[in-house]
């Protein structure tokens, strides 16, 4: 097959490709860094011609053009699989919703639970000599999504890095409806904030618990990244990577010579991820790097896969937790902040791994908008807050005041341990709350 001839026959403008969308259609913008740019602009330009166009996306890194107009919600509805700050703004505007899920189930949603997608708009790197477009930084669920699509339009961006994939990591030109050559915008960067003293304290408690040869998963946020920085400076060796999100910290650890994947029972020698977002340093690092491999999220986040990797170490941030050990990692009351993502899968998978450990980390307190210090350890989760990790699944909890293991503890033992790592300013009040709830014993005070 002459792939270049086929490519040229499908080449068109963004404006022409956007005409595929009709009122009432389901349109998919795919995921994170792969969201379309020129196609989004062209669809926004058709706003007044359209009604009830339903658009899916997730971990949105820039405001879509279709969401900018004051009356955008009269024409488009945004459906987010995982909220970023941009997704929250769109939802707050009244033109969108969050769709709850365990991220590992998303490919199956497209295979079994959702109606076929009418039109897919996604950015991809340039086509290779075999007629394939890499899914680049977001293999995630894109193959299964495209397999159920009536029309697929790829927007070529030379700045998106092609990556090696495990499987379901590319799309062939034969399956594409149109090709649009965009203006090659730079990939938005997701920089990490400088670590705080609390971040460093928590990281210093976790790193000694990591053995040589461990397989790492790091969540997004200051604490996991600080742990990654300390690992890069440590004497640890022969580490592996199997993660949902690939972040800059992994690049630092790899360049420090700590990662070789030699102890991985699966994907020997490879750093495996479902999607990636970070800085240009990371985007350059994954570009056709044979040590890095993209994979579908129903593989990377599958508890059964994670459990096969010995000494699996999972490190994640949360919003708050209660005295029963219930963890909220995604909402502030009824306000959705992010999503379940893969946290629950990795918490469970790490515990099932031989020698594995799951660490949930948080600062013990934070300053509210009124400037007052507020405990992030609460008697019970705030009404409306989402329980991301049930109390039965949590293993290690870490704050700047210590590390505890909840496995095997009853309710009053849990309350005692959790209060011991709370901010000292709030411990007495938490004890009183625990007494009212019947999960405190006089013997705790010995």
UniProtKB/TrEMBL annotation:
<dbReference type="InterPro" id="IPR046433">
    <property type="entry name" value="ActCoA_hydro"/>
</dbReference>
<comment type="function">
    <text>Coenzyme A-transferase that converts butyryl-CoA to butyrate.</text>
</comment>
<comment type="pathway">
    <text>Lipid metabolism; butanoate metabolism.</text>
</comment>
<dbReference type="InterPro" id="IPR023990">
    <property type="entry name" value="Butryl-CoA_acetate_CoA_Tfrase"/>
</dbReference>
<keyword id="KW-0276">Fatty acid metabolism</keyword>
<feature type="domain" description="Acetyl-CoA hydrolase/transferase N-terminal">
    <location>
        <begin position="4"/>
        <end position="184"/>
    </location>
</feature>
<dbReference type="GO" id="GO:0008775">
    <property type="term" value="F:acetate CoA-transferase activity"/>
</dbReference>
<keyword id="KW-0443">Lipid metabolism</keyword>
<protein>
    <recommendedName>
        <fullName>Butyryl-CoA:acetate CoA-transferase</fullName>
        <ecNumber>2.8.3.-</ecNumber>
    </recommendedName>
</protein>
<dbReference type="GO" id="GO:0046358">
    <property type="term" value="P:butyrate biosynthetic process"/>
</dbReference>
<feature type="domain" description="Acetyl-CoA hydrolase/transferase C-terminal">
    <location>
        <begin position="278"/>
        <end position="434"/>
    </location>
</feature>
<dbReference type="InterPro" id="IPR003702">
    <property type="entry name" value="ActCoA_hydro_N"/>
</dbReference>
<dbReference type="InterPro" id="IPR026888">
    <property type="entry name" value="AcetylCoA_hyd_C"/>
</dbReference>
<feature type="binding site">
    <location>
        <position position="319"/>
    </location>
    <ligand>
        <name>CoA</name>
    </ligand>
</feature>
<dbReference type="InterPro" id="IPR038460">
    <property type="entry name" value="AcetylCoA_hyd_C_sf"/>
</dbReference>
<feature type="binding site">
    <location>
        <position position="342"/>
    </location>
    <ligand>
        <name>CoA</name>
    </ligand>
</feature>
<dbReference type="GO" id="GO:0006084">
    <property type="term" value="P:acetyl-CoA metabolic process"/>
</dbReference>
<keyword id="KW-0808">Transferase</keyword>
<comment type="similarity">
    <text>Belongs to the acetyl-CoA hydrolase/transferase family. Butyryl-CoA CoA-transferase subfamily.</text>
</comment>
<dbReference type="Pfam" id="PF02550">
    <property type="entry name" value="AcetylCoA_hydro"/>
</dbReference>
<dbReference type="InterPro" id="IPR037171">
    <property type="entry name" value="NagB/RpiA_transferase-like"/>
</dbReference>
<dbReference type="Pfam" id="PF13336">
    <property type="entry name" value="AcetylCoA_hyd_C"/>
</dbReference>
<feature type="active site" description="5-glutamyl coenzyme A thioester intermediate">
    <location>
        <position position="244"/>
    </location>
</feature>
<dbReference type="GO" id="GO:0006083">
    <property type="term" value="P:acetate metabolic process"/>
</dbReference>
<feature type="binding site">
    <location>
        <begin position="219"/>
        <end position="223"/>
    </location>
    <ligand>
        <name>CoA</name>
    </ligand>
</feature>
